[in-house]
Amino acid sequence: TTSRLCWSLAFLSTATLTYDSLHYGEIEDFPETSEPVWILGKQFSALTEKDEILADVTSRLWFTYRKNFQPIGGTGPTSDTGWGCMLRCGQMILGQALICRHLGRDWTWSPGQRQRAEYISILNAFIDKKDSYYSIHQIAQMGVGEGKSIGQWYGPNTVAQVLKKLAVFDSRSRLAVHVAMDNTVVIEEIKRLCMPWLDFDRGACAASEEPREMNGALEGACALAEEETALWKPLVLLIPLRLGLSDINEAYFEPLKQCFMMPQSLGVIGGKPNSAHYFIGFVGHELIYLDPHTTQPAVDPNEDSQFPDDSYHCQHPPCRMHICELDPSIAAGFFCQTEDDFDDWCAQIRKVLKGLPMFELVDSQPSHLITADVLNLTPDFSESDRLERFFDSEDEEFEILSL
After folding, report:
1. Tens-digit pLDDT string for the chain (403 aa)
2. 60's torsion region: left (phi>0), alpha (psi -120 to 50) or beta?
3. Which is nearest to 13 in space by CA: 33, 32, 35, 28?
4. Which of 291, 327, 341, 392 is catalytic?
5. Which of 219, 285, 296, 354 lies 20 to 30 A from 344 at CA?
6. Which residues form the Peptidase C54 catalytic domain (predicted)?
């Protein structure tokens, strides 16, 4: 038992090194184990499907520190090295949502080939320049409204709130981003967000003049409403959680792992003091993650928006760490393309939440919670922010926020 523990500790010290201090070839391959490997809702065998595992990991968007980009805010930093790791993890979890939205979960990246226009459009949304929807510039500047100055470290809740605000401007993707507060997911709240036509006042149409039909289609506001009744805005659900005080509670190990097994999984953003990671799956009790802690030069697209994209894909075995090393402050993400996807997620989550639940799933807004509209207008994240600052304060490299 002692030798096994020593081996485990030695492995952890190697596996959790960041890429800045480690040559790619030194990263350990997947272990020879019969335990299944789960990555974002897909199951693999470490014994017979190592190539498939690596291909799937490589197809995820990998956002890391960059240097020599346009100054943030015109006069701010030109690199996010040392402070942008959680922002990059936020980019990765949202990047996975956009891949699912436009290309599908089973899409794979082919290096060295001219890429599909949809893929290029997604990647351009994250390029390090001020006018990209989800660039480091936009995230850092939007974070100022959440009380984070440019260059200050984020926690999982803050980056979730910022991504929610930025997604409003992405009219092409038309995402409904919901951040569940107070450890509670309210089904009614989400369905109204994803199907805004539910609030449509049909009586107003009846009271107005009869809608006219032109070329076989209804004209005017009622026609638009009829069109929208068939639509569900694709949902990105982000759930900030605290799974313990200073360490993750062992009771949450299995429920958290089951989240990675769901087809709706976008993974988890979190990590440890001094380093945020994007967790995409697990094998046994080890979490599989992409690490943003390597600094690469900024990339500029050419005239037709094509550019070398190899540096946006992790082309070597991903890092792993024991689940007990995970800081308890995380945000779990899920993507539901359709209402059926969301209903299926609810059914699965109800099974997962038996025992010690990570969060609550309720049909309608509990009376003791603030309404969604109030949260949107005057966010009061006192409790979650206090916990997030606890996470931040353990990072000695960054400014310790006063409580």
Report:
1. 433 333 333 333 333 334 444 444 345 677 788 999 999 999 999 999 999 999 999 999 999 999 999 999 999 999 999 999 999 999 999 999 999 999 999 999 988 888 889 999 999 999 999 999 999 999 999 999 888 999 998 999 999 999 999 999 999 999 999 999 999 999 999 999 999 887 644 333 433 344 434 333 333 444 444 444 458 999 999 999 999 988 999 999 999 999 999 999 999 999 887 789 999 999 999 999 999 999 999 998 776 666 789 999 999 888 999 999 999 999 999 999 999 999 999 999 999 988 788 999 999 987 665 544 433 333 333 333 433 433 343 333 333 333 3
2. beta
3. 28
4. 291
5. 285
6. 51-347
The full set of domain ranges for the chain reads 32-198+231-362
State yes or no: is 89 an active-site residue. no
**From 56, 80, 85, 385, active-site residue:** 85
> What is the per-residue DSSP string for 73-108?
GGTS-SB-TTT-HHHHHHHHHHHHHHHHHHT-TT--
Note if 85 is an active site residue. yes
Q: Is 297 helix (H, G, I), strand (E, B) or coil?
A: strand
Is 380 known to be catalytic? no
